[in-house]
Design goal:
alpha+beta, 2 domains, 15-stranded antiparallel β-sheet, 4 helices, 15 strands, elongated
Length: about 280
């Protein structure tokens, strides 16, 4: 009972502080242009990437002043490019401030979809937010795995922090109308529905708590782990998959000399790496 009034007072304090900050920015004429250039320079130094934009300036939203970049071209150090129509950033209304961790509300929109949420600073930076209708065909293939070609739309919730051992947190994902292809898969696999709960950190790159995909050729439920490695394609796999396969899929695999499935339900162990999986 005592905690509820305290939480309300904290929330009112955050609201009041952000309102006051808004008024101060308006009165003193905050130098947004220099801040925008400084932010881009800091991002480039930290990531080795290069970012260009056509326009930048302050905008006003219901939550207060924000910085907005338009016409963004982002290139990572390998030359992979991602285009964004708009990126907005403003002070985040969050209780993390009281723990000494500054936060910023981030909203990225472009041909590949939208990412919106709270970026957390401090000693353990992180992100809490949502992916909205991410079109995987618009994402550079090397970010997803150079040996895989993935299409479809993906949405979900993200809650991750970067700690000494790497990323830790939870991903809740759902997708639809996709397709998996790649040399290691032997044939294209259409996917109508996809859902997953992934736990990041610990001894593995990711633990697959649940993963379900369903399409006209198969249904699959997968659990297990993806080990730590410099790149995703090199990550060792330790997975168990329960697969219901259509007769047509089984016959197509047999023509390729692959007899790991039978019509109906099969349980498989999957090892190897993400770039070259092997059925045990």
């Amino acid at each position: 009972m005592d905690g509820e009034p305290l939480n309300k007072r904290l929330l009112l304090g955050v609201t009041g502080a952000c309102t006051l900050l808004t008024l101060v920015f308006i009165v003193i004429g905050f130098p947004y242009d220099r801040l925008g250039d400084r932010f881009v320079t800091t991002l480039e130094r930290a990531t080795g990437a290069h970012m260009e934009y056509t326009d930048f300036g302050p905008v006003f939203t219901w939550a207060g002043p924000a910085l907005e970049w338009q016409g963004i071209v982002y290139r990572d150090k390998s030359g992979n490019q991602l285009d964004l129509d708009r990126a907005r950033m403003r002070p985040g209304w969050s209780l993390y401030w009281f723990a000494g961790d500054p936060t910023a509300h981030v909203d990225l929109t472009g041909p590949a979809g939208r990412i919106v949420g709270i970026a957390i600073g401090g000693g353990e930076p992180g992100f809490e937010g949502r992916l909205e209708q991410i079109r995987l065909a618009q994402i550079p293939s090397e970010w997803l795995g150079p040996e895989l070609r993935i299409t479809g739309e993906l949405s979900g919730d993200i809650d991750v922090r970067y700690r000494a051992g790497g990323l830790e947190g939870i991903l809740l994902l759902e997708g639809r109308e996709g397709n998996l292809a790649g040399d290691s898969l032997s044939m294209d696999i259409p996917v109508d529905q996809f859902s997953a709960r992934l736990s990041l950190g610990g001894d593995h790159r990711a633990t697959i708590e649940t993963l379900h995909l369903e399409g006209p050729l198969l249904r699959a439920d997968v659990t297990g782990s993806v080990g730590a490695s410099p790149t995703l394609s090199e990550a060792p796999l330790d997975l168990v998959a329960e697969i219901y396969a259509d007769v047509e899929l089984v016959r197509a695999l047999e023509l390729l000399g692959l007899d790991m499935l039978r019509p109906g339900t099969s349980t498989l162990g999957i090892g190897g790496t993400a770039g070259a999986p092997q059925v045990r």
